[in-house]
Amino acid sequence: MPRQPERQLSAILRDAPIPGPTAKSISSRVAFSSPNSGWYALAASTAKGRFACSGFAVHRIFAAKNLQTCVTTVAEVFSGLGVHAIEHQTSFIDSRDNTDPAPIDPRRLMRDLQAFRDPRPSRSAWELAITLIPFVILFALIASAAAAGHYFALGATPLAGLFLLRLFIIQHDCGHGAFLRSRKGNDWLGRALGVLTLTPYDCWRRSHALHHAATGNLDARGFGDVDTLTVREYLERGPMRRFLYRLYRHPVVLLGFGPAYLFLLRHRLPIGLMKEGPIYWGSAIATNLATALILAIPVWLWGVGVTAMVFFPVLISAASMGVWLFYVQHQFPEAHWDHAADWSFHDAALHGSSYLDLPPILSWFTGYIGIHHVHHLASRIPFYRLPEVLEKHSYLRDLNRFTALEAWSTMRLALWDEGERVLVSFREAFRIRNENRAPLL
């Protein structure tokens, strides 16, 4: 629950009149993203009208280092819009009472979460069945309809993509040893599902383990994550390398060309693991061969053209949704990054991962992976038990929480500002340079 000053700030802003016939009031949510750091994030949004703060204004509020700065920033932003009803904006800054919740201890929480680790074999079997069987049936129905000339059926490929995405989540749990009780069972099921998701299981498991082991570590970037530069690193690059990084971070590349390249091309070879042993070569080659054999079935039934018309849209839609989920999980304003000397696995896992609060149907299709701060702190928890954690530890619902709509606004963020400890946009990076807040060496 928000602390008392935050509740009062929300009330002030809720009642503040906004001039104009279509904007009647402002609703605000104040949440603390990290009790240890003392940061506060305020997301201003329209309650009864169509008013919205500019992206720059919202960023200034997000970047506030404490509640005093947050309130001052809010006052400046709203005064520029003709809001004059916040006369007691800072009167409550020091009115904290003794009801504040204790800061979250990530290490203790990690120990508490061990109670949720054990998978339930019957539940795991059920989750696999209600995902794999509908996917196969839906794929067959779409292909049969398309083969008969009913091409409107191709409109259902995103739905099939959601089922394929859920199969990938199950494969993901296998990689963490969280879906079945035996290590061998997890590994062989993961390899089998990798044939459908075009993801060599052993290669992916290794790179993903490195991602978990180094999330938020500025000195260990590059494995299983979205490439992220600091402001200083970006400004020190030449024009061409800046352009390439901006191109890489563009949403069309990140959510379109990037997922297609990753699942259709990059996964065909053990990129990054070529010198790490034959197991990774074997994983990539075996997955390629098995996928070719599986695809031979729809090719035999409906032909190459129909199979391609169905398979590729299903795969790309699943891949794009998966990459967007992965992006949102670690790319948000109050993300947590440190150099190795100051880095803590537990702090980075909890405070460097978000909680994406999706509608129930999307939470089901995405295997509740939006509860990512819990997952990173205790990756052995089966995906279907993650909601249990939020029921037991309800305070985690307010930590780094984003709705799907709010999460889209994070796509503009691209660089880590080490001084302010916040992710910023390219425009903000150049403003920082112009203000000499990050001088070049």
Write a structural description.
This protein has 441 residues and is mainly α. It contains 19 helices and seven strands. The protein has helices at 4-15, 55-62, 67-79, 106-112, 121-147, 157-175, 183-197, 201-214, 231-236, 239-249, 251-264, 278-302, 304-330, 345-351, 360-365, 372-377, 386-392, 404-408, 426-434; strands spanning 26-34, 39-46, 229-230, 355-357, 401-403, 415-417, 422-424. Strands 3-6-7 form a three-stranded mixed beta sheet. A hairpin with a 4-residue loop joins strand 6 (415-417) and strand 7. The longest helix is centred in the N-terminal third of the chain and has 27 residues, at 121-147. It is globular.
Order of helices and strands: HEEHHHHHHHEHHHHHHEHHHEHEEH
Number of helices: 19
Largest sheet: 3 strands, mixed
Mean pLDDT: 81
Largest beta sheet: strand ordering? 3-6-7
**Rg estimate, integer Å:** 24 Å
State the share of residues found in helices, binned by percent: 40-55%
Name the beta content range: 5-15%
For the terminal residues, how far apart are their CA atoms? Answer: 44 Å
Q: What is the 3D shape?
A: globular
In quaternary terms, these chains amount to single chain
Identify low-pLDDT runs.
Answer: 1-69, 74-100
The count of DSSP E runs of length 2 or more, i.e. the number of strands, is: 7
Helix/strand-derived class? mainly alpha
